[in-house]
Amino acid sequence: MILAFALAAAFLFGSGAYLLLKRDLIRMVAGIMLISQCAVVTIIAASLGRGRAAIAVAPGDPVSDPLPQALALTALVIGLATVALLLALVHRAVVVFRTAEQDRLAATEAAHEAALERERRADREEVGPAPEEAGPAEEEPADGGRAR
Amino acid sequence: MVVIRGGAAPPGAGQRHRGSAVDWPGWLACAAALAGFALCLLGWLAGGGAFALPWAPSLDLELSFALDGLAVLYGLLATGVGALVFAYGTRYLSLHLEHQRRQAVERWRFWPWMALFAVAMVGLATAQDLVLVFVFFDLTAVCSYFLIGFDRAEREARTSALMALLVTVVAAVAMLVAAVLLYAAHGTFSIPELLARAAPSATTTLAAALLAVAALAKSAQVPLHFWLPRAMAAPTPVSAYLHSAAMVAAGVLVIGRVHPLLARSEAVLTGLLVVGAASVVVGGVLALRRDVLKQVLAYSTISQYGYVVMMYGMGGAAGNGAAAFYVLAHGVAKSALFMTAGAVTMATGEDRLSRLGGLGRRAPVLAVAAGVASATLAALPLTVGFFKDELLFTAALRHGPTTAVLAVVAAALTFAYVGRFWGALFLGPPRGRVGSTPVLLVAPVVVLAVIAVAGGLVVEPFARLAEDAAGVSAGGPVALSPAYHLDARAENLMALAAWAAGGALLALPRVVDRVSRAVAVAGERAGPRRAYEMAVHALNRASTALHDREVRDLRTSIAAVLVPAGVLIGLAFAATPTAGAYVVGAVVGADWLILPLLALVVIATVVIAVAKARLAVALALSVVGFALAAVYALVGAPDVALVAVVVETMLTLVFVAALARMPRAAPERDAGAPARVRRRRRDAIAGGVAGVAVFASVWGFLSQPAPDSVSAEHIRLTPAAHGSDVVTVIVADFRGLDTLVEITVLLVAVVGVATLARRRLW
Amino acid sequence: MRPGGRDGAPDAVVRVVARLLPGPSLMVAAGLIAKGYAEVGDGFAAGVIVALAIAPSYVALGAEGVEAALPVLRHAPAVAVGGLLLALASGFFPLLLGEPPVSHRPAPGEHVVKIGALELFTPLLLDIGVFLLVVGVLTVLLHQFGRPRREGGR
């Protein structure tokens, strides 16, 4: 049984990771859903020392471990919230970029990248002149100072 | 603390005082510094004191402060010089902001940092805990960063501030390492206890060397001196304070504080001696032909603190005493000289020696006061400076002939560059136009000059201060007896030799020029500053490259998370023995129902991965969800099953609704393009690897169930909590906080959804 | 989602069922909450079930239609916020009494008034708060995803 649960979790995660790498944003959301399912399965499977449901337990009864179940409940609820948010995000992206494909998003990203490059150049200037620019000293080597 | 109150008055108040109006935050800082000075003085006369508060007891950290001799010396220096510099600054800053056409409200970017600078110095001087020392040490660096970069519109200022911060803070990490090393060996961060416990050993030597590195970088010693001349980009009050009583002084303060530890190892002391001597020579030679006023002073500071480091390197009562006295005398003289430079520049608009001259007649008061300060630095009699060199020569003679020669060379260099500085400013033919010099820009210099002369006449109080301070560094009482002796003793002869040599250097400007220029060029070609720049640029490049690799697009961002995680898991597996770690598990009873359900999950999962249509993806997702819900019901988790069913229904609904609002999946263009096929294959491999990694870890994790769970306790307590469904009770009671956070997340998420839809909630 | 029916007008049966469904679902929810501590189910599941009962209205009538048919849904955001506040209050009121959060009253071991399966104690408030929150949140969610799109993007 342990092996079966592990296999199911592995398929869920592997498939989720594969979908995450897809271009289609909807499929990325599906990937995230699969990965969160994988997490819940793993948590539930961790309570494999199984018995009946942990309701009105008499001492000595074999019961399923209730704590992982409580954690799984939380995971499910949060998963619902996350997926709703992701779908809204994808929808927004579709409205703005008119496509759910990453190709078009990549073009926007390229523009963003150009902006980053400008920022980076500013950073470079901030740390001082490049060593190759620092020519040999003439009148006032290492003259960094301004009297003021 | 008093000083903080000085900087914490309500912001915006400065806006009403424009231009030359009274700079009351500055005066507040000044008053606070004066109060601190008085407190330090009273504390010293009362014999000191100490207090300690627990900080992080689990880490053995204490907020322990003590007003011992060393603390008094540096405390008085920081608050006394601080008060004068702050008074000077009230006027200077107004003029400075006016010149730069900046608003007077920018004072609020200045005075809080200055006040904090003073607080940090006093804190550093009194701190008795190595980690506390580190905190204050870095606090001074942070203050200096904002103060050096005060003219933030200028790149030069920003670059210099960054350099000062990087050099001193990165070096300060060595101090933290040393603290941890010592803690590991002796179980305490308390400096007095460490000094009592640490015996000479490899660990002690290493820790001492690390402490010395941090302190030397702070004190701008060769080869980490290059940040200091650049730091001249700061407004003059900052430079004056930074060079005489704060920041640079913090380095030698730390050396003084932990000196008994350094003295456990002869090698560390020798290292100090060598570094100090190198700094004296390099700083002195470079100072000889700087043209910019503040640069001359900056290199002189490197050289002067080189003296102090050298004397600490000599060690013993004489060396420690001389070092403490030297810091005091230098602080007085150097702050006066900086303020002179600032006043001259303010009055003439020039900042180069070559364009200045003959100011003596036009600004006589300043000339005399600056003359006294210069004489103090050059160790002429009738100033407190004479005794600093007398003590230096005594200590050097006691240590050996080499150091004695070095001391004379150092004194000669000092005499030469100080003489050149003062002479070029105030003697010779008048050059440049001179505006008025405000009283407040001259008065502090005069006060310091008076102090210097007073010290030259009655040296007793200064000597007592230095004795007390040196007592801490030397770990035993120190007696200093500086006095004028009108005989031919060795110290006097050395002083005469130094003056003569210094005079000769002054008289031979051409030779000096050539040597100094050669050193400067060599330093520029192969100096540490170049190494620093190359290191910073290389780091910058590496960071850029990594950044490019990671965030080029969404896929690489995801890969940047998945790949390192996979590698880590792989490494963990490679390092863990796996024999017996995996259990297949028995299949009994209801398990026969679960197996086909899990098979269904796997099939649906594969369908999701390969499906072309999005609707198929949505439906297969719900198949996975419902199948898993059935599995939960079968493993004795009915609560989870119920929630899974309803959540899954909801999710399917929302998913389909979202799909309905998406554009139709565009037909895969150039579906057969080799690049795309290659990519798909790569994605499949990545997914497969991820799956295998998860399989290996989940299987291992499930195979090793913990023998007992917290839930036994939960089950036991459930009836007392008036419930019988343990899971519900856990959710509502035992782990109720989790639930509260979780439902808050739910509301936040829906607000996010509404925001993304650019609508109100309804 | 679009209004159902081939001609664009919602089917009469669907409309009636959609309008009536929330009522019984509230009964189920009440049952789930009441016996939540003793049996399977809690406020969260109850909330989702009510929301699921509301969902067909959106499928059948479309957002505007639902607003016209069930104007009470307009209060969903207020219900969500109110539910959250109720739940937080039931969790944090012990702080005012100097006890750790989520200490419930009556305290363990003390007598609890029971009406059938319904126990009157503070976790009940937590459950009701969660229920209201979930109903409100999911209704808003349905509303957001169900509204016909005005922006372009197709």
Automatic annotation (TrEMBL), chain A:
<keyword id="KW-0812">Transmembrane</keyword>
<keyword id="KW-1003">Cell membrane</keyword>
<comment type="similarity">
    <text>Belongs to the CPA3 antiporters (TC 2.A.63) subunit C family.</text>
</comment>
<keyword id="KW-1133">Transmembrane helix</keyword>
<feature type="compositionally biased region" description="Basic and acidic residues">
    <location>
        <begin position="108"/>
        <end position="127"/>
    </location>
</feature>
<dbReference type="Pfam" id="PF00420">
    <property type="entry name" value="Oxidored_q2"/>
</dbReference>
<dbReference type="InterPro" id="IPR050601">
    <property type="entry name" value="CPA3_antiporter_subunitC"/>
</dbReference>
<feature type="transmembrane region" description="Helical">
    <location>
        <begin position="70"/>
        <end position="90"/>
    </location>
</feature>
<dbReference type="InterPro" id="IPR039428">
    <property type="entry name" value="NUOK/Mnh_C1-like"/>
</dbReference>
<dbReference type="GO" id="GO:0005886">
    <property type="term" value="C:plasma membrane"/>
</dbReference>
<feature type="region of interest" description="Disordered">
    <location>
        <begin position="108"/>
        <end position="148"/>
    </location>
</feature>
<keyword id="KW-0472">Membrane</keyword>
<feature type="transmembrane region" description="Helical">
    <location>
        <begin position="26"/>
        <end position="49"/>
    </location>
</feature>
<protein>
    <recommendedName>
        <fullName>Multisubunit sodium/proton antiporter MrpC subunit</fullName>
    </recommendedName>
</protein>
TrEMBL record, chain C:
<dbReference type="Pfam" id="PF04039">
    <property type="entry name" value="MnhB"/>
</dbReference>
<feature type="transmembrane region" description="Helical">
    <location>
        <begin position="44"/>
        <end position="63"/>
    </location>
</feature>
<comment type="similarity">
    <text>Belongs to the CPA3 antiporters (TC 2.A.63) subunit B family.</text>
</comment>
<feature type="transmembrane region" description="Helical">
    <location>
        <begin position="117"/>
        <end position="142"/>
    </location>
</feature>
<feature type="transmembrane region" description="Helical">
    <location>
        <begin position="75"/>
        <end position="97"/>
    </location>
</feature>
<feature type="transmembrane region" description="Helical">
    <location>
        <begin position="12"/>
        <end position="38"/>
    </location>
</feature>
<keyword id="KW-0812">Transmembrane</keyword>
<keyword id="KW-1133">Transmembrane helix</keyword>
<keyword id="KW-0472">Membrane</keyword>
<dbReference type="InterPro" id="IPR007182">
    <property type="entry name" value="MnhB"/>
</dbReference>
<dbReference type="InterPro" id="IPR050622">
    <property type="entry name" value="CPA3_antiporter_subunitB"/>
</dbReference>
<dbReference type="GO" id="GO:0005886">
    <property type="term" value="C:plasma membrane"/>
</dbReference>
<feature type="domain" description="Na+/H+ antiporter MnhB subunit-related protein">
    <location>
        <begin position="13"/>
        <end position="139"/>
    </location>
</feature>
<protein>
    <recommendedName>
        <fullName>Na+/H+ antiporter MnhB subunit-related protein domain-containing protein</fullName>
    </recommendedName>
</protein>
<keyword id="KW-1003">Cell membrane</keyword>
